[in-house]
Design goal:
Layout lengths: L2 H18 L4 E5 L6 H11 L8 H4 L1 H4 L11 E8 L13 E2 L8 H20 L5 E5 L6 H7 L4 E2 L5 E2 L7 E8 L19 H5 L5 E3 L2 E2 L5 H6 L16 E3 L3 H4 L19 H5 L2 H6 L2 H7 L9 H11 L7 H4 L6
Parallel strand pairs: 3-10
Antiparallel strand pairs: 1-2, 2-7, 4-7, 5-6, 8-9
Helix pairs in contact: 1-5
Bound molecules: iron/sulfur cluster (2 copies).
Length: 327
C-alpha cells in the first residue's frame, strides 16, 4: 500500500473512531506557527483584554507555535463534543449556570475519551505515538485550530460555531507525531449581517464583533476573577451565578445544537432542581460532596457566594443559619 493511501486510511479510521466514542466532529490541520492570528492575539493581550489571566501572556510563545509544545508534531487533531441537553430549562426563582457546567467536569470526561483515541491510534499505526492532548487546559489556540482543521468559524461572540452542532461544543486538541491528511481550513463566516450576540451581551463585553474584553465578561468574572468587588465600569447583571450563555442562546446557529448522548453531562440534581433558597444556604461540606466532580469547583463556594452578592442575593452563612458545616 502506498504511503498516501495508508495516510488516507489512517485518517478515515481515526475520524470514524472519534465519532464512535461521542465526538461530533474531527478535523486535522498542519502544525505551523501562527502568523496573522498571533498578531491578533498579541494585540488582544496588549489591550489588557485578558484581565488577570496572566498565564495567557506567559504562554504566548507556546500558544502561537504548536511545535513548542510537541517538537515532533506532524498533525493537529481537533475534536468537537457537544454538551447540549434539551432539558436545561431554568426554573423560575433559580440561578442560571452556563450549560457546559451542568454535568460532570468535561476535563475528566473528555480526557478519558482522548486517552482512548490515543490508544486506538497506537494500535492502528502499530507504534507508540508521541502525543499531547487536552480539552481547554494546554496552551494552544483551540478556536484557531478548529477553523484551520475545517470544523467551523469564529463567530462575532468569539466562539467556534459549527454548522453541524452550533456552538455548544467543547474543543479538544491533540498534537501527534504522525502525518495525517489535512482538512481544508474553514474560510467562510456564516455570521453574515447578524449581530445579535454583540447587541444582547448584558455587560457590553463584546466591544466589537469578534473582540471580547474578558474584564467585562460574566463568564470570566464569575469563574476566573478573584476580586471581591466588580471591576470599575462593569455593569451588574441578573441571574447568572456561574458563567453565562447569553451570546450563545441568541445565536441562530444553535438551532442546530445536537443533544449529547454523553450521560456524564446530564445536569446534576441541584442544578436542575434547586431554587435560590437552597443555593443561599449551601455550606462547605455539602458543596464539596455535591460538586466534587463539577466545574463549579473552579469558583469554589467562596466564589459562588461572592457571585450571589453581585446579583443582590445574600448567602445565608452557617452561623446565621445555625447549621454546622459538617455533614
Ligand atoms: S458570555 Fe455573556 S458576558 Fe460574556 S460575552 Fe457572552 S453574553 Fe457577554
Ligand atoms: S449570534 Fe449572530 S453574529 Fe453572533 S455568533 Fe451567532 S450568527 Fe454570529
Amino acid at each position: 500500500m502506498s504511503w498516501r493511501h495508508r495516510k488516507k486510511e489512517w485518517t478515515e479510521a481515526i475520524k470514524q473512531y472519534a465519532r464512535s466514542i461521542g465526538f461530533e466532529d474531527c478535523g486535522i490541520a498542519k502544525p505551523v506557527p501562527l502568523d496573522e492570528e498571533a498578531r491578533q492575539y498579541e494585540d488582544w493581550l496588549r489591550r489588557g483584554f485578558h484581565g488577570t489571566m496572566q498565564y495567557m501572556e506567559k504562554t504566548f510563545e507556546i500558544r502561537i507555535d504548536p511545535k513548542k509544545l510537541l517538537p515532533s508534531a506532524k498533525s493537529v487533531i481537533v475534536l468537537t463534543h457537544s454538551y447540549f441537553r434539551k432539558e436545561a430549562r431554568y426554573k423560575p426563582n433559580s440561578p442560571k449556570i452556563a450549560r457546559y457546567a451542568h454535568g460532570l467536569d468535561y476535563h475528566i470526561v473528555l480526557r478519558r475519551k482522548l486517552e482512548r483515541l490515543h490508544d486506538f491510534m497506537c494500535k492502528l499505526i502499530g507504534r507508540e505515538i508521541e502525543a499531547v492532548y487536552s480539552v481547554d487546559s494546554m496552551p494552544v489556540m483551540e478556536r484557531v485550530w478548529a477553523r484551520r482543521a475545517g470544523l467551523g468559524w469564529q463567530g462575532k461572540n468569539t466562539l467556534t460555531i459549527t454548522r453541524k452542532a452550533g456552538s455548544y461544543v467543547f474543543l479538544s486538541v491533540m498534537l501527534v507525531d504522525v502525518e495525517l491528511e489535512y482538512d481544508k481550513p474553514f474560510e467562510s463566516d456564516f455570521c453574515g449581517r447578524c449581530n445579535r450576540c454583540v447587541e444582547v451581551c448584558p455587560t457590553g463585553a463584546l466591544v466589537m464583533p469578534g473582540l471580547l474584553d474578558a474584564n467585562k465578561c460574566i463568564s470570566y468574572l464569575t469563574i476566573e476573577y478573584r476580586g471581591d468587588e466588580l471591576p470599575d465600569g462593569v455593569s451588574a447583571w441578573t441571574d447568572w451565578l456561574f458563567g453565562c450563555d447569553v451570546c450563545q442562546e441568541v445565536c441562530p446557529w444553535n438551532r442546530f445544537a445536537k443533544e449529547t448522548a454523553e450521560e456524564s453531562f446530564e445536569p446534576l440534581e441541584p442544578i436542575k432542581e434547586w431554587e435560590w433558597g437552597l443555593w443561599r444556604r449551601l455550606s462547605s461540606n455539602p458543596f464539596k460532596r455535591l460538586f466534587r466532580l463539577s466545574p463549579l469547583r473552579r469558583a469554589g463556594l467562596r466564589g459562588l457566594r461572592r457571585n450571589m452578592r453581585w446579583l443582590g442575593v445574600e448567602p445565608i452563612l452557617p452561623e446565621k443559619n445555625k447549621q454546622p458545616e459538617t455533614n
